[in-house]
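Appendix B, Record 12. Input sequence as logged:
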Amino acid sequence: MVSGIVSDADHDRDEELVGPASRGDIASFETLYRRHRDRIHGLMWRICGGDPGLAEDLLQEAFVRAWQKLDSFRGESQFATWLHRLSVNVALSDRRTRLRRVKSEIYLDETVERTAVGSRDVRTAQNSDLEQAIARLPERARTVLILHDIEGYGHSDIARMTGMAEGSSKAQLHRARKLLREELE
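Logged structural output:
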């Protein structure tokens, strides 16, 4: 695997490891973890707005969940695709939980969106202007932008994953791109 991209050979090796791992072979699962952790960490880092602690927590939660649900992997898609989707669901579930907690602590008008993005102490390699601008986007706009433009999901998939209407997904993407252009100019 090079730069987080899974080749056909890696896909074949993943498939050879999934069976033993689903039967409790920890060494096989550790190999899957090492092969996919960087890509999943990058996904989590972007979704949580560049908060390194939260990204690490979400990475660990995603792999714990993958270990628990590995026997549900039916091989209808590549393991990397299944893991990616599971990881997105972990991140979105965490976001919903955090938003519920914030709403229960402080009344929020529905037009106000939480924009806290956590610590700005991001590793130097990840400290590009674009990454910083994405991290400063409002959470819903950032999530849609990442899922659509970076991860390649369509609006219908994003709507299903986030629980928003497809039109809202499109509107949030338009909003995110507009805010990014303004920020980067």
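The chain has two domains: 1-118, 128-185.
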